[in-house]
Amino acid sequence: MALSKRQQNILGFIGRFARANGFPPTIREIGLEVGISSTSVVNYNLNVLEKKGLIERDPRVSRGLRLKESAGQRARPGRNVVQIPLVGRVAAGQPLQIPDGAADFSLFGDETVEIASGMLRDTEGVYALQVSGLSMIDALINDGDIVVMRHQNHAQNGDMVAALLRDRNETTLKRFYLEGDRVRLQPANPAMEPIFIPARDVDIQGKVIMVIRHLN
Fold first, then answer.
1. For all residues of the chain together, what is the average pLDDT?
2. pLDDT tens digits for 142-169?
3. Residue of 52, 132, 135, 207 with catalytic role
4. Which tens digit of pLDDT belongs to each residue from 24-62?
5. What integer pLDDT is reported at residue 2 of this predicted model?
6. Per-residue 3-state assignment (H helix, E strand, C coil) for the chain
7. Catalytic residue chosen out of the listed positions 40, 52, 132, 174
8. Which residues contact 191 (CB under 8 A, 6 or more apart)?
9. Is 135 a catalytic residue?
10. Which CATH class is domain 5-72?
11. Is 52 annotated in the active site?
């Protein structure tokens, strides 16, 4: 399976660091080298490399990873796998503010997630977001998970959506309910309150069609 440019950079840095120091880098050292501020994003990419058989990891220690002998080889994309662009982060908790001048979601660069083609036959308008927060935990969506979205600007009551709150310039992941001239954005966490907002101030960015669990 093909590696993204970021994953190639991570793999190359692990090899160079280990040869120079006699031990592998930490997750934070990897992030500093390749320009990733989020340790969860580094961890996601390391999980991808591990699943592809290019590294081995021992979660009990901070430097518990090593290159496997197959790491010098690059597998070609399989016919039964599709690559979905990972375009940013969405808040499952307090809405995530969008920086001035930015797109709807903070971009992760050339990152992708891989999905078996049999699970997703139509990839038109499909993209992925990394989840930040715990407001959808009772829907089995945890902090650091990946949600696969289909881009659409409408939703049915009960749909799980990425919603842009225009008056706040913020995004959030919640269940959508239209109630008269307002929208209720409902968390799946009994400890959190729903968001009520005028319908005119909500833009639907997409509907969740799949969840990829992040396992430590």
1. 81
2. 998 989 999 888 999 999 999 999 888 8
3. 135
4. 888 888 989 888 888 888 888 888 888 888 888 877 766
5. 66
6. CCCCHHHHHHHHHHHHHHHHHCCCCCHHHHHHHHCCCCHHHHHHHHHHHHHCCCEEECCCCCCCEEECHHHHCCCCCCCCEEEEEEEEEEECCCCEECCCCCCCCCCCCCCEEEEEHHHCCCCCCEEEEEEECCCCHHHCCCCCCEEEEECCCCCCCCCEEEEEECCCCEEEEEEEEEECCEEEEECCCCCCCCEEEEHHHEEEEEEEEEEECCCC
7. 174
8. none
9. yes
10. mainly alpha
11. no
Predicted confidence at residue 188, as pLDDT, reads: 94
Amino acid occupying residue 7 = Q
**What is the tens place of the pLDDT at every residue in 178-213?**
999 999 999 999 999 999 999 999 999 899 999 988
pLDDT score, position 119: 77
User: Over the range 193-202, which residues count as b (16 or more CB within 10 Å of their CB) and which as e?
Assistant: eebebeeeeb
Task: State which CATH number among 2.30.40.10, 2.10.109.10, 1.20.1250.20, 2.40.30.170 fits the domain covering 81-212.
Answer: 2.10.109.10
